[in-house]
Every structure is written in C-alpha cells, then in structure tokens.
Amino acid sequence: MAASRDRAVERLLRGLYSAVLYLLVPVTVYHLIWRGFRQPEYLERWGERYAAYSTPPLDDCVWVHAVSVGEVNAAAPLVNALLESRPDLRLLVTTITPTGSARVRALWGERVEHVYLPYDLSGAVRRFLAHFRPRLALVLETELWPNLLFCCRDHGVPAYLVNARLSERSLRGYALLRPLIGRVLRTLARVAAQSEADGARFVRLGAEPGAVSVLGNLKFDVKVGDAPRRVAAAFAAHSGGRKAWIAASTHPEEEAAVIAIHRRLRTRWPDLVLLWAPRHPERFRPVAQACVEAGWRVATRELTRWPDREDGVFVIDTLGELADFYACAQVAFVGGSLQPVGGHNLLEPAALGVAVVTGPHLHNFSDIARQLDEAGALRIGADAESVGAAVARLLADADARAAMAAQGLRLVAEGRGALARTVEMIAPELPPA
C-alpha cells in the first residue's frame, strides 16, 4: 500500500513538473535566440536541444554528461582513463553550453561522440535515450534533472552522480522541489561525493545514505603536461620576461575591479602585464575594449598570439588554454568570487605552482578553498580592494609566493585518488571487453 501511494505521489510530482516545462517551451526558444545575439553558437544545432538527431543511433555506449567547460575539465581525467584502458568503448559526452561543446572537441576530437543534452522534457529525454541507448550514465557534479534521471531508471540505465557536490546554498535552493528531487536522488545507482560535507548534504536532500560514497574530487587528478612550461617560456620571450598576474574566469561585475586593481599595481610596477581570461566568450571583446579605454596597449591571443614588450594587457580570448597560461603568471586571481557566483576552479593554478588569490564568494568550492586556505596556499580577500592588496603583497614577496606554491603542489598531490576510486566504482557496469 505504501509503495503504491509513493508511486502515485511520484507520478503526480513528475506530471506537474513536466507540465510546467512544456508550458515553458516557448521560453526555451526565446532563450536560445537571446543568447545567440551574444554568442552565435546558440543559434546552431537546435535539433539537439529537443532530441532530434541526424546521426546514426549509438548502442551500448558509456554516456558522460558535463554541463559546461568546468565540468568537462573535471570529467577529463575519467574520460581519458576510459579511452586509455578501454579503447573499445563507445563514449558519448554531452554538454549544454557551446563553450562546453568546444572544449569536448578540443580535448577528444572525434574519439568521442558529442551532442547537446536535450531540455528536460519527458518526450525529448525518451528520444535521447532511445537514440543513444547508453549502457550507463555518468552525470557530473550537480545536474539533477528529474525527467532525465527518472527516464534513466525507467529504461534500465544505471545513473551515477560523479564528482558530486552540493553547497549549503544550493541545498537551500532546492527547498521547494525537495519532495521531487529527493525521489530523483533515490533513482541513482550511487552518489560519488567530493567530500563528507557534500555527501551529508545529499542525504539531507533525500539520497539514501547507503547509496552515497565519498570518493574525493576528480579535479585533483588532472594531469599537468609539458604544455604550460612551453607556453610560459614563449610568453616570457615575447613579453620581455616582465612580471605578470592573471585574472581568470572573471564575470562582468568583476571587470571594473580588475581594471582598478591593475591600474594600482602598475603605479608600483609600470611594466606589469595583466593576463585576462573572461569566463564567457561574449566578454572577450568588451574586456579588450575596456582595457584600451583605460589607456593600456592590449594584445589578444586570437589576433596577436603573444604580447610584446609594450603591451599592458593580454586578453586570452580562446577556449581551453587558461590552464596553460596560469603558468605565465606570478599570481593568479580566480574570478566568480567577487560576486555571489560561488567561485571557480582553484586547483588549476595551485597544480601549476602559482600563488592563488580569490574573493569571498566560494560556496561552489568551499571544501577546496578551505583546504587550500588551511594549507597556506590561498589568500582570500573580503572585497576587491583586499584582493588587490593581496596580489600586490605577493608580487612583492617571492618567498611568500614560493611557500604558497609549495603548499599548493603538496595539497594537490595528496588529494589525488578520486579517479582510481571512481573507475573502480563503475567498472562492474561497463560493457564487457
């Protein structure tokens, strides 16, 4: 009786959720057009957004979903491990954003299948699963789409939430949907949480305690190759070996602060170079223009490839190169942290031995920020002025930078292991060799 009542409640909740989504279909079209004015790629491949495909069906594949660039980078160690250990596997990687799509192609080219994940409309999700027929689903971080995960269960596709994170703020945000999301979580084969705190929050949201494991963060397992060293050497040769700092993954509301910080820093170091990598491609050109209006000579990666000895700002207006360019700077400011975005990946610069500074809004990376801070590998500024002061102190103190770099490298090395644990977890679900 209780089971029957629970199924009835689930059907009701799913029905209400789906009805709202279908009513919002015109809004999705408007959204694509609106985003397309700023980023033309949003005007392309609309069929994939509604699960209409021209490619042949794909059977018995391993499907990885990573919403955008950050999640694709987090998934990279896992996808690379699967490609290396099981070259026979057919891998499907889905994203939602064009930048995520571009990153998939940059990392793996034609070695993986790639499409956009459709909107969470029940019909579109069923068409997606019927076309690709995945053997299992590996969903990165916090992509809790109800119809997607309910349909995976209904189609017999075991779904894993991999590298799962859930901030206290996100947990509060799910308050109204908790009866639905709790049921969604219970469809999962396992929640592989980044930390004990993340795991506990997923249980509070409705996951079965026995289905939650703490495996660590895949971002610790990202390999650092030779590319950063080569990029740093080329940058130094072209720019004259000047001091440099980098503002990475910044959002529009942080741009004025970055310009103000760089202006203050150049009163002390007149030949200081700012490397600037805005988070979103539509901000590349406005950021370059703002720097010109501030009175600096500006180089861009797309047009000039490298800065010369006269350039005050170098805008990294390409995708997928940020990690390499961290190695060019003495100090890195990681954006999304001076406004309540929640921060971005702090481990990338730490893994390259760069001193890291961030703002106070870190709820998406609270565990990593805490670990780096406790290790002495991170400086957290309360506001833009504090961030600028921290960058200045570190530019002036090579010993402090070296100490931070050593602690960051140690922490990254000690944090590795999530990849091996994740591969071991999913191994029984992989297609036979």
TrEMBL record:
Keyword line: Cell membrane, Lipopolysaccharide biosynthesis, Membrane, Signal-anchor, Transferase, Transmembrane, Transmembrane helix
Active-site residues annotated for this sequence: E71
UniProt site (Transition state stabilizer): E141, K219
InterPro entries: Glycos_transf_N (IPR007507), Glycos_transf_N_sf (IPR038107), Kdotransferase (IPR039901)
E.C. numbers: 2.4.99.12
Pathway: Bacterial outer membrane biogenesis; LPS core biosynthesis
Reactions it catalyzes: lipid IVA (E. coli) + CMP-3-deoxy-beta-D-manno-octulosonate = alpha-Kdo-(2->6)-lipid IVA (E. coli) + CMP + H(+)
Name of the protein this chain belongs to: 3-deoxy-D-manno-octulosonic acid transferase
Organism expressing this protein natively: Luteimonas granuli
